[in-house]
Design brief:
mainly alpha; 6 helices
Length: 263
């Protein structure tokens, strides 16, 4: 029924495709490309209908190969439909409106084919038992059924053993990872302690630098004062040397006048 609806949907797409006479203008090349993509999409959908009709008569590897072919063709159809949608974004609004119904029908057809493919794949998985062979339980005697059940049980036991081994390996890896994380955590703690200790050293160093800076400023001030005093003495000496007979009029405060015997 799904295939028949897809046939009717695809056959009706041509009627909804816009005519070339209505697309004259700057978007004509885009419309031609879209029409070409749409033609390829219709061909892919026709191939899908033929493949779905043929898959029911196939068994085993041939059925699996046909289902794989159908899956690839559906993927190609979805790519073509996506390309058409992207091209329509660059066309005029009128063009998009004329193509909307066609794109919607293609979308619905591809979705039906996807659902039908999933159903066929699930049915194939239910029918495959051992090594891809379909076994009719009604055609087997009780001994054969027991033998098949034993083989399935042995396969299940082996699979459980492999799963148990993988779980054990995963557990060992987890324990080793936890140990490594613990060691790394301890290492990070030690690094953090070292960083804190270095920060304390830096703080003490900054304090020492500030003390030294203050001492340097004080020494500079004292040096400047000494230089000024020396400069004053040099000026007085030069003045006395140039003017040996001159007397400096110095206003000496009362109480500091030297004795007469020293004048």
């Amino acid at each position: 029924a799904a295939i028949a609806r897809g046939q009717a949907s695809s056959d009706s797409l041509v009627r909804f495709a816009p005519g070339r006479d209505d697309m004259a203008g700057p978007y004509q090349q885009m419309v031609d490309d879209i029409a070409s993509y749409e033609s390829d999409l219709v061909a892919v959908e026709q191939d899908l209908r033929t493949s779905f009709d043929a898959v029911h008569a196939l068994q085993g590897g041939a059925r699996a190969a046909k289902l794989k072919h159908i899956s690839s063709r559906i993927y190609h159809a979805k790519q073509l439909l996506q390309t058409i949608k992207l091209e329509l974004r660059e066309t005029s609004r009128e063009s998009r409106a004329q193509w909307d119904m066609s794109v919607s029908q293609h979308t619905a057809t591809i979705e039906r084919y996807e659902k039908l493919l999933v159903a066929l794949q699930n049915d194939a998985q239910r029918q495959d038992l051992l090594e891809g062979r379909v076994i009719d339980a009604d055609a087997l005697n009780p001994t054969q059924i027991i033998e098949h059940a034993a083989k399935v049980q042995e396969s299940s036991v082996a699979s459980l053993a492999r799963s148990k081994g993988m779980i054990q390996k995963s557990h060992e890896v987890g324990v080793e990872t936890a140990s490594q994380l613990h060691d790394q955590t301890e290492q990070l703690k030690r690094v953090d302690d070292q960083v804190k200790e270095m920060d304390q050293y830096f703080s003490a160093a900054r304090e020492q630098i500030r003390v030294i800076s203050r001492r340097v400023e004080t020494d500079k001030f004292i040096l400047v004062m000494l230089l000024m005093c020396v400069l004053g003495v040099v000026i007085i000496i030069l003045y006395k040397w140039i003017h040996p007979d001159s007397k400096l009029n110095v206003n000496v405060p009362k109480g500091f006048t030297p004795p007469t015997t020293y004048q």
